[in-house]
Write a structure and sequence with these properties.
This protein has 167 residues and is mainly beta. The chain has a domain of 113 residues. 13% of the residues lie in helices and 34% in strands. The strands form 2 sheets. Strands 2, 3, 4, 5 and 6 form a 5-stranded antiparallel sheet that branches. Strands 1-7 form a two-stranded antiparallel sheet.
Length: 167
């Protein structure tokens, strides 16, 4: 597995060349609360130079662990860009690192509202009615809302709720 994908422009034939393989998942380097890759980026590419641009066509994919917006359960979904058509500007001669360009193309495929019924292995995706605000029974025994493990982004709002109960 490669840590980066570099194309040597000096040895790239005029008619182009095919590249295939994997790039280590470490190249994504995402913050803790973002979706995380659970496998390498796989690529099948054709690279061809056109004056000051390198044109890449083919496909890329990588499996990611996402959190369902309905059930708050983690699931794995393989994100794909197929077909990939990407132009990278050539700023100087020599080896050209295209890893970041591929990374950005795949990150654009992360869904805004991931649901576990879209997973590689689809799961039943239904909200627990105990967590619905509409028509919630008065004697509900649910004390806390469901959260992803280690997610403390709501702690500031929880602190405001505690202020209201003190006054």
């Amino acid at each position: 597995m490669l840590p980066r994908l570099t194309i040597d422009l000096a040895t790239l034939p005029e008619e182009g060349k095919n590249f295939s393989g994997e790039i280590s998942a470490e190249m994504f380097d995402l913050p803790t609360h973002d979706p995380q890759p659970v496998g390498p980026l796989t690529y099948e590419l054709r690279a061809q130079r056109f004056e000051s641009e390198l044109f890449l066509s083919g496909s890329i994919s990588a499996p990611f662990e996402l959190t369902c917006v309905r059930t708050v359960h983690p699931f794995v979904k393989t994100l794909r860009v197929n077909p990939l058509n990407l132009s990278v500007e050539i700023e100087q001669e020599g080896p050209l690192d295209i890893t970041d360009a591929l990374r950005e193309e795949l990150l654009l495929e992360i869904p805004d509202y991931p649901r576990c019924d879209d997973a590689d292995v689809p799961m039943h995706c239904e909200i627990d009615p105990r967590y619905l605000a509409v028509d919630k029974p008065l004697g509900d025994t649910v004390e806390t809302r469901p959260r992803a493990t280690g997610d403390d982004r709501w702690s500031a709002l929880d602190a405001l709720d505690n202020l209201d109960s003190e006054s």
